[in-house]
Request: fold
Amino acid sequence: MNKQKNAVVVIPTYNESETIGKMIDHLFSVTFPKSPGWNCKVLIVDAKSPDGTSEIVKEKQKKYSNLDLYIEEKKEGIGAAYVKGFRRAMEKLDADVVIEFDGDFQHPPETIPVMLGEIDKGYDYVLGSRKIQGGSNPKGWGFKRVFFSEVGGLAARFILFFPTKKFFSITDPTTGLKASRVDGFVNKMKMDNLYSRSFGYKLEFLYQMINLDAKVKEIPLKFQLREAGESKIASGTPKDILRTTILLRLNDPKTQSFIKFGVVGFVGYIVNALGLELFFRLGLSAGIAAALGAELSIISNFTWNNLWTFSSKKISGVIKIIKKFLAFNFTSAGAVIIQFIVVGLGTKFFGDQWRQVLLVIAIGFFIIPYNWLMYNKFIWKKK
Ligand SMILES: Nc1nc2c(ncn2[C@@H]2O[C@H](COP(=O)(O)OP(=O)(O)OP(=O)(O)O)[C@@H](O)[C@H]2O)c(=O)[nH]1
Ligand SMILES: [Mg+2]
Reply:
């Protein structure tokens, strides 16, 4: 028989004395018995709440041996609390799965056995989503909160994932209800230098888990109004989320190489234009001069992309370089054909006066994605 696995429900608290005792009782007596295959533990990470939250937890520890308490030196943000909680869950509590969970009854406890069931099925990352069938925002939320949740969530999805498949499949990136597998995921996550130690950490953990190739499952979350106590949502939260998502995407290696690819492409255009001018002034016909300029820009693009954009996958060795350079010329010819089709067809439909606009459309919507795809899939493909 397999050894029973440990699931650690991590609950950060700041002044949650009104609900935490009830939550602990509910988890141990009602919720956990529904997951007989799991050894469920609770870890409360308390930000030295002045309202006596930790005293209540200590009292409950007399009753529940699987209840752990960590009291922070001071309140440092919900992200900081989860970093400490995850570390402790791995190091002290031998966690196989960690669950992010609110102690104010906003997250229905009955989602916990559902999430563990999905982990049992082989998923690595189970997310409670308010945006799929069966999920919802609290009925009592005002316009502002609904707006931030909907528009902010969509913006975060876009910034983090567009145009990959994850843009469509991660429907609720700011959700606070998650179960994460430790082995290969949480134990590989970098938590020392987060962009945000407040709410933005949620996006950061999400992004890291996705980049670690976690198998993701979304379950419906009927998000509730907090049962008692005051809201700790800071007014700067939307800004924190926006800042974190932008930093994550901008500093992603893929984005970095896309920016370099753009710069190299622009330099290629300049080389093309200068080449045309130079050869034309040397007395060649404009057509020949343009073709030579184009070949110079192909050489420039190939060289700089190889040395800079895709330096981590650099092509080296004379034979290999020649082979790939020929292939590169071949894919570049594809871009010429695309231009021929888009500008040719476009002017036929709309008239010749649209040729420059059509050129921009051809480059922006077709050639850039086409080149990016060809470079990544064929020329500088992963080894
Ligand atoms: N340890 C710790 N816990 C925190 C901190 N900030 C918030 N929390 C707790 O984390 C839980 C989730 O916080 P948020 O979702 O940001 O805010 P909230 O108060 O639940 O917001 P509402 O949706 O209005 O209830 C709350 O139950 C807080 O008690 C913090 O800095 N440190
Ligand atoms: Mg809450």
Remarks:
- Residues 318-350 form the longest helix (33 residues).
